[in-house]
User: Fold this.
Amino acid sequence: MVKVYIPRDTSSISMGADDVAAAIAALSEDTDIVRNGTWGMTYLEPLVEVETNQGRVAYGPVKSEDIPSLHKAGFLNGGDHELCHGFTSEIEYLETQDRLTFVRCGLIDPLSIVDYVNNGGYHGLENALKLSQKTIVEEVTTSGLRGRGGAAFPTGIKWNTVLEAVGDQKYICCNADEGDSGTFSDRILMESDPFCLVEGMTIAGIAVGATKGYIYLRSEYPLCKEILNAALKIARNENYLGKNVCGSEKSFDIEVRIGAGSYVCGEETAMLDSLEGKRGMVRAKPPLPAHVGLFGKPTVINNVLSLASIPIILSKGGDYYKNFGIGRSRGTIAFQLTGNIKRGGLVEKAFGGTLAEMIDTYGGGTYSGKPVKAAQVGGPLGAYIAKDDFDLLLDYEAFSEAGAVLGHCGIVVFDETANMKAQAKFAFEFCAIESCGKCTPCRIGSTRGAELIDSGNLELMEELCDLMDTSSLCAMGGMTPIPVKSALKNWPEDFRSSDSKDV
Assistant:
C-alpha cells in the first residue's frame, strides 16, 4: 500500500481537498490515504504528498482533474510532474523556517495519538508530572514566553500569579477567538495538531492547580470544533485527561465552548463574560482575571499559540526555547501572510527577521505583480507600514517604538492601487460595529471618526484619536487610532483626494 497524505483543514477543503482525495481513492485501490493537517503553505493547497523510501514527495496545488495526469506520470512512485515540488522537507518555504510550535503540523494525522506521541508529543507533560508546580512555572518564566495573542504579557508571571492566588477552584481558559483580519495560525494549529494545545493546557492546569479548562472557540470554526472534541475524547480514553492524569494524582479536563461571534470577545474579560453566559462586555481592571476571573475564581487566560508553545518548553527546557529570538522577544512566532500576496501561508520563525524577508522572500511579493504599497501587521487595529519601513525588526519592542503592534502577527499586504484613506475609514467603521458599547470614547468616537474622515477635518480627527487612545476602557477603542494615524502619516496624499474608494 502506498501512503498518500491529503490535508483535511479548512483552507485545503475549501480548495477542493475532499474531491482530490475521492479522485485518488477512485483510481488507486492500492493507496492508504491519510488526511493530515496542513504544513501552512496555503498557496500550494491542496498539497498531495506521497510517501517514498527517500521521503515524502509533494505535489500541489492539485485539483481533482489533475489526478489522471499525475497517475500517468507515476506520482505514486514519486514520479516527476509539473505540479511536483520534490521532497516536502526540502521546499524552501518550509525548509528555512524555525519549527517549534508547528513542528508536527502537516507531518501527522491530527487525530492519531500514536503519531503525536511518536513525534515528541506528551514528553513535556511527562516531564511536568515529575516537577513541582513552582518549577514548572519557573521553566516557563525562563523561556521568556510572552502572550502570543497581542498584549505580549510574560506568561510565567501570569501563571505565577494564579499559582499564588487563593481559591477553591482555578481555571485555564484558552482564548481561541481568532478574529483579527489576516490571522489563521490558531486554526491551523487546532486542526493540524490538536493534542499540542490539549497538552499545553494540561501542563498549565497542573502548574497552577487548576482542574478545569475551557477552549473559547469562535463560531466560524466548525471543523476546529469537530477535531478538538474528537481529540479531547481520545485524550480522555488514553488517560491524558480526566482524573489521575497519566496515573498521577493530578486531575484536569477540558471543554470546548463556542463564542457568540463578537470581535470584542477576543478581549480576555469580555471572553469571560461570554463564557459565563452573559453578553461579552469588557470588565474594568483591577481586579485582574488572575485573581478574579471565570466565575470569580483565579484564572489563567492564554491564547492558542501561547499554550501550544508550552509542550516544547517542558520537553526541552526553558533555556532551549530562550535561545531563539532577540531582546525580550524570545522563541518563535507564527507569521501569517495574506492579502495581495503571491505565496500566502504560515511562516514560523524566531523573532528578529524583517517585514521585507516575510513579504519578499517568503511571500514572493504581491499576487497582482504590482509594487507593494503597505502592509498592515497585527490585525484590523494594527499600523499600516510603508515599504520604506520594511526593514523594521519583527520583535515586540521594535514595533512598539515605531508606534505599531505585532499582535497576532497577521501580515496583510496591499499593492499600489490601495487607497489608504479608505483603509483608515474602515478602522473607524470596524470599531463602531464591533465595540461592546460600554465606554463612550470607543462607542461614539469611532462613529464620529468615520464622519470626520469624510468631511476632511483631519485636525479634529487627530484630536479624537488622542482622546480614544487615552480614554477608552480597553484596547478596542485605544488601538483604533493606530491604523488611522499611520495611514495619515505615511500617505497624506490619499487623504487629500476626494475619492476614498478602495480600488
Observations:
- The radius of gyration is 23 Å.
